[in-house]
Amino acid sequence: MTKLMRVVVLALLVAAAPGFAQVTAPSLMIVGPTAKVNDINFSPDGRQIAVASADGSLRLFNTANGEAGLTVQLREGALYGAQFSADGTRILTKSSQHLYVYDLTNGRQLTQLKQFPVDRPTLSPDGTRFAYGTRDRAGESLIIANVADAKPVATAKLDKTVVRLAFSPDGRSLAMVTGTLLGPNNTVQLVDAETAAVRHTLTYTGKSGINSIAYLPDGKSLLVTGAELRVLFDTATGKEKAALPRTKANDVMGVDAVALVVRDGKAAFFANGSYDGTIINLAENKPTHRISVDAEHIVTGLRISADGERLAAVVGERFVKIWPTPGAGKATLAALGGTLTTPLAPLRDAQNRLVIQGHEAAVTGLLYSASGKTVYTVAKDQTLRAFDASTGKEIFKVATPGVFSDLAPFGADGLLHGNGKIFNASTGAVRGELFKHQDLLAADGSADGKSVTIVTDSFEPAVDTFDTATLKPVGKLKLRARPDKAAISAAAGLVALAVEEEKSVKILQIATGKAVARLADKEPRTLSFSPDGGTLAVALTDELLLVNAATGEVRHTVKARFADRLTWSPDGKVLAGFDAIGKTLFLVTASDGALKELEKLGDFDPVLAISPDGRTLAYSRLDQVVLHPLNVAR
Predict the structure, then answer these.
(1) 156 pLDDT above the threshold of 50
(2) Starting at the edge strand that comes first in sequence, how are the strands of the sheet with 229-234 ordered?
(3) Residue ranges per domain, the chain?
(4) d(Cα 76, Cα 67) in Å, to the nearest integer?
(5) From the CB of residue 551, how many other CB atoms can be counted at a distance below 10 Å?
(6) 52-61 long-range CB contacts below 8 Å, 24 or more apart?
(7) N or C: which terminus of the chain carries fewer CB neighbours within 10 A?
(8) Which residues of 392-420 are buried (b: 16+ CB within 10 A; e: fewer)?
(9) Are 84 and 71 in contact (CB under 8 A)?
(10) What is the mean predicted confidence (pLDDT) over 163-171?
């Protein structure tokens, strides 16, 4: 029941720091779950990754190509956890009130335990037993049960809640951390997996509590991690072998630092809910690599494969990103795409939409050519790229130093980049430069393509018009105050400006500076003129206004909160936008202000563009661009 999911190869950047290795390598992004991803985990051989989601699904994906494998769909609600047996044939997951074990060779459910709560369930390496913490009126307990019938084989009464639990590699013992909701979790015990009897109580001296525990592969040592201290314990005696305090700022070890894997004398640590982590040489207590997971989004669910060659993380809530760790072998690199020297092939997603890929970081600007045959993109990988809109194939790529989000047409054959440079739309060659050290707030060209009018965040605020052939200025409207938001309609000869201190939106004639209309007590998130300049869309915190640009009269009030990325169809009949809080794409019909939700996205902000024929909405999804057909009555 395999099905090719959406996959993209992109770049991993291991951020350089003094004494640290820097690695650039390809990686894989899987898009499949329809809801928030709650947990991920690698299979023991690293060839599959399990994804547990809020929609009650547990899905397996091939880590080499993103192909979907076994899917388990439950109806009772969200699933949490995905833990494999050592041979990879069984997996444990849980919901709020049930615990499940599945046979991955045939998809058969082996165990269903109804129990509330089930704290930190863990599966034995041979997949025959599981352990978990629970509580009832009698108090807290540790329970070890058989997978075959879910019946307990050993039980131990506890005085605290189980907050961490892990089987030893041979399955003969359990490492258990207990604590309270309000206090630090400092109690670590080694428990007999047959009887639940405590063998050793370990002394951990870290003041802020324990964040994670991990057995070394030989089972002879246990690594216990807190915010400011790591300790290696001898599992045979329970005695401390080595204390490894935080040594330098480059050693990621925050309050939520988690040890993900221990292999070849090294451990990887990540501050869960952050952007980066550290690989530590345990023998020397020295950081060897600083890993930057994602420059755009806080990540969760960080995991490293058992062979130490692949790292996975959840980004944007619904995306799973996989890439090789520093020092990964050639086979892993090859499996994840080899190099990034060859343009990547476009994809078709589950809805048969064309998905354009190729950027190595989030897309920040998007534009269709006048013919609709080309899609132009800029991204935080500091490149400008052109793609064939019908096939998704890359036409050209050029470097664009600096991270700028704007891209606008410039005459018949030019592109105005947010850094002020003009590029040839056919070849990507640089034609010239309009400005430096400024951000582009708005731009629009005349119908004949002979001039372009812009507004930047210059400290000498003005509305400037340039000849597109000579790049020379042909008009300037000086402004009294530096605008925070702006929109231009060259067709109507109007500019809309918002200055934060004035808390208003002004519509001026570009030629004379004469005020046409003013919207008082308005602090817009964004402004956008319709193609003919007759309507100004004003996005406020709680609503979206469609305003008569000539009079300032509000034609329609749309209940769209935190609207952003407003984009008009060429005929001005449809306005596309993005709810920045609800993370939802929407369409508004200009004639009546009716709003239609189009698609729920993950935890990221897209940029939008509508094709010249009005039939396709292009939107960015991290480093991809999705071409979404619009079925709107026109």
Answers:
(1) yes
(2) 210-215, 221-226, 229-234, 240-245
(3) 483-605
(4) 26
(5) 11
(6) 52/79, 52/80, 52/81, 52/82, 52/93, 53/78, 53/79, 54/78, 54/79, 56/95, 57/33, 58/82, 58/91, 58/93, 58/102, 59/32, 59/33, 60/104, 61/5, 61/30, 61/32, 61/320
(7) N
(8) bebbbbbebeebbbbbbbbbebbbbbbbb
(9) no
(10) 93
| pLDDT recorded at residue 231 | 86
**Structure tokens belonging to residue 405:** 């989000």
Do 39 and 54 touch, CB atoms closer than 8 A?
no
Cα 447 to Cα 138, 243, 442, 497, distances in angstroms = 79, 71, 17, 22
Which tokens is 155 given? Answer: 């039980």
pLDDT of amino acid 309: 73
Task: Please tell me the number of Cα atoms within 13 Å of 145 on its side-chain side.
Answer: 26
User: Phi-psi region for residue 46, left (φ > 0), alpha (ψ -120 to 50) or beta?
Assistant: left
Longest dimension (CA), the chain: 88
* CA atoms of 210 and 267, how far apart (whole Å): 16
Q: Which two tokens stand for residue 43?
A: 């299979």
- Judged against a pLDDT cut of 50, whether residue 186 lies above it is answered with yes
248: phi then psi, degrees, rounded to nearest 5: -155, 165
Question: What are the pLDDT digits (tens) for 338-373?
Answer: 332 334 457 777 678 898 887 877 889 999 999 999
User: pLDDT tens digit string along 410-467?
Assistant: 998 999 998 899 999 999 999 999 998 888 999 999 999 999 999 998 889 999 999 9
Q: What are the backbone angles phi and psi of residue 138, rounded to the nearest 5°?
A: -80, -15
**What's the pLDDT at 288?**
66
Q: With 80 as the cut, is the pLDDT of residue 182 above it?
A: no
Query: What token pair was written down for 224?
Result: 């216990």
For residue 465 the two structure tokens come to 């018009």
| Contacting residues for 257 by C-beta, under 8 A, at least 6 apart | 211, 212, 225, 226, 227, 269, 270, 271, 272
Q: Write down the pLDDT at residue 546.
A: 97
Q: Taking a C-beta distance cutoff of 8 angstroms, is the pair 262, 279 a contact? A: no
Q: To which H or E segment does residue 496 belong? A: strand 494-499
| Domain 483-605 in this protein, CATH class | mainly beta
Predicted confidence band of residue 12 (pLDDT cuts 50, 70, 90): very low
Q: How far does CA 323 lie from the centroid of its chain?
A: 14
